[in-house]
Amino acid sequence: MAPRLFLSFEGIDGSGKSTQAKLLADNLRAMGRRVVHTREPGGSPGAEDIRRLVLEGATDRWSTETEILLFTAARRDHMEKTIRPALARGDVVICDRFADSTRIYQGATRGDLRPMVDQLHALMIGQEPDLTILIDIDAAEGLARAISRPGKELRFEGMGLTLQQTARDGFLALAQAEERFRVINGARGVEVVQADVLAAVVSYLDTA
Hints:
This protein is α/β, with parallel strands linked by helices. 54% of the residues lie in helices and 13% in strands.
């Protein structure tokens, strides 16, 4: 039996993590694995409804504490409806953002609320990814990429460069503290990054 894998992608806005998550899903399917490619906030009908609440609108639409509750509610529904059923079937789950994004964007960049995030996670979610790929990029470059994209989901990008730099520093610190992380330089060409991501995942699967 192929080893189970719950994998998350993390990184600041504009890092290219969503592109790499999709490419990895395609690569693993080509290798014969069943893959569920999902995202946060979102990934289930209820969580997608919450996504529109937290990613659109004015930057001051919600307090940070309210955001933590909304993201946790979305994640709980996502786990119940999508992630746990897929893992029970033996599928690979690739998730574009998971709890680490809440730890950074709500728990660290706008106040010292990490304990609240971790307490809610332990109470309502109780699961971490087996492997987390952090696509790392310079904060200014990531922000420039992010704000050039079409669409309405720009609420966090609208909070500016300082937030993105703090988020990058937070992700790198988290990666140093957690063995499940693999840090990939996202400032290179898409194909080069893709090759490094696939190598990291295959290496993990070979030893799982």
